[in-house]
Structures are given as structure tokens and as C-alpha cells.
Specification:
By secondary structure, the protein is of the alpha/beta class. 42% of the residues lie in helices and 16% in strands. The chain contains seven helices and six strands; from the N terminus they run βααβαβαβααββα. The chain has helices at 13-19, 24-44, 64-87, 103-115, 132-145, 153-158, 206-216; strands spanning 5-9, 49-56, 90-95, 122-130, 170-173, 192-195. The protein has a six-stranded parallel beta sheet, with helices on both faces. Helix 4 (103-115) links the parallel strand 3 and strand 4. The radius of gyration is 17 Å and the shape is globular. The two termini are 13 Å apart. The relative contact order is 0.19. It binds 3-methylbut-3-enyl trihydrogen diphosphate (2 copies) and magnesium ion. Residues 10-15, 55, 59, 70, 175 line the site of one 3-methylbut-3-enyl trihydrogen diphosphate. One 3-methylbut-3-enyl trihydrogen diphosphate binds next to helix 1.
């Protein structure tokens, strides 16, 4: 079965920086550079969709200074990478709550989505201001708001922020933590999982190849027999 949709929980930025006596924010910057390296290889390997966990609702618990710097990194990345992304045929979409984000920030997210909408080579779903439990709540409300009194699982999936995306085939996490932290909670019931000790800023393009090899060893049974 082809690896169409890969989820990445980008973790360990803070530890990467702290190990070098740097501010945590420097780790986030390097983490972003690592993501750019992975994207190019993902296109070469014909992965259709990358979902990346960029900021969780729980991350609001972090000190204001770190949050502020992270948000300004996202903003400048959106500006700086815009043309690059489009030129590479990448479509960027976001998933997560936009309710408590600044209007100007949301406008930049939407503008990147429409600017890259025609990208055919790779879809990057950025999970921003996202949590699995918040997503489930939002989807139930959305379905009910459309008059569906008793939504089924398929109704919830159809009401996702990006309902056209397939379920994630594989979710990987860096930095040794073996948990999902709510990442794609509703969609990950039969997703293959792999955990790597390497901190995210140290990830290079070869990690995509390692992940594809690991995925090719898995037998996906979905409850049946093969
Ligand atoms: C992941 O790195 C990036 C975000 C959560 C935004 P961390 O910042 O969680 O890094 P560690 O886990 O503290 O090393
Ligand atoms: C998950 O990482 C969120 C992102 C990668 C954006 P965290 O570092 O916030 O997760 P926990 O707190 O260790 O579970
Ligand atoms: Mg972390």
C-alpha cells in the first residue's frame, strides 16, 4: 500500500536549542529549516500529503515570549516561502481553530491557502491552533449546524477542515516521545506509527526515505486477514 499521507509530529526543537545553550526559539527556527528539507524529498518520493503539527491548542500553556516568537516565525515563513511553495506545486492548507487567532494572522493563512490552491505536487496540511479533542468538538458542532441531528463517523469526517484528504497512512514523531498528543485523533485509528529519537531540527531528507522503508515493512490489516 502506497504511503500517500504522512503525518509528522515535529518535536524536540526546544531540547535541540537547550543542548547548545541557545534560546528555545533558535530550535524552532532550525525545526522549520528541517521541514523544508523534508518537503523537497517528499515531493521526489511522490508522497501526496504531509500533515505537520505546528502549534497545538495546549501549546498556549507555554510562556508568552516563546509563543510570540513562534507566531512571528510562522508569519514571516508564510511571507518568505509563499512563492517558493507555489513554484514547487505545493498546496498549503491549515487545520485547527481560527477563532482565537488575530484577524490579520488568519488573513495571512487564508491568503496562502488561496495563493497555493492550484498546487498539484504535494499538499501540506499545517495543524495550527489544533487539538484532537477540539477538532472532534468542532466537527460535531459543524455537522449538527447543518441539520444532521445524530452525526455518524462519516459525517464527522466529511466536515473536517480539509475533508478531501485521505486518512494518514503513517504518523511519525521525533525526539523520542511515544505519544500522539492528540494529533489527528479522529483519523489515526488504523494509522501506522513510528517514533524516532532524533530531535526534529536534526532531521534531514534521508528521514523521508527511512520512513518509507519502515512503512513498506508494515502489514496493514484493518481488522481483516491477509
Ligand atoms: C516542538 O518542539 C515544536 C512545538 C511544540 C511548537 P518543542 O518546543 O516541543 O521541543 P521540546 O519538546 O521542548 O524539546
Ligand atoms: C506536540 O508537541 C505539539 C507540536 C509538535 C506542535 P508537544 O511538545 O507540545 O507535546 P507534549 O506536550 O510533549 O505532549
Ligand atoms: Mg515538545
Amino acid at each position: 500500500m502506497k504511503l500517500r499521507h504522512l503525518g509528522i509530529i515535529m518535536d524536540g526543537n526546544g531540547r535541540w536549542a537547550e543542548a547548545r545553550g541557545l534560546e528555545r526559539f533558535e530550535g524552532h527556527k532550525e525545526g522549520f529549516n528541517a521541514l523544508l528539507r523534508l518537503i523537497d524529498r517528499a515531493i521526489e518520493r511522490e508522497i501526496e500529503c504531509l500533515s505537520v503539527f505546528a502549534f497545538s491548542i495546549e501549546n498556549w500553556k507555554r510562556p508568552e515570549d516563546e509563543r510570540r516568537k513562534l507566531f512571528s516565525l510562522f508569519e514571516s515563513a508564510i511571507e518568505k516561502e509563499r512563492t517558493n511553495l507555489k513554484d514547487k506545486g505545493i498546496r498549503v492548507v491549515f487545520s485547527g481553530s481560527r477563532e482565537n487567532l488575530e484577524k490579520s494572522f488568519v488573513a495571512k493563512m487564508s491568503s496562502l491557502e488561496s495563493y497555493t490552491a492550484s498546487g498539484k505536487n504535494l499538499t501540506i496540511q499545517v495543524l495550527f491552533n489544533y487539538s484532537g479533542s477540539d477538532e472532534i468538538t468542532r466537527l460535531i458542532r459543524r455537522a449538527v449546524g447543518k441539520g444532521i441531528k445524530s452525526p455518524t463517523f462519516d459525517d464527522l469526517l466529511a466536515n473536517r477542515d480539509n475533508p478531501e484528504l485521505p486518512m494518514p497512512d503513517m504518523i511519525v514523531r521525533s525526539a523520542g516521545e511515544k505519544r500522539l498528543s492528540g494529533f489527528l485523533l479522529l483519523q489515526s485509528g488504523y494509522t501506522e506509527l513510528a517514533f524516532y529519537d532524533r530531535l526534529f531540527p536534526d532531521w534531514n531528507a534521508e528521514m523521508i526515505d527511512n520512513i518509507i522503508i519502515e512503512y513498506s515493512k508494515r502489514k496493514r490489516k484493518f481488522g481483516g486477514l491477509i
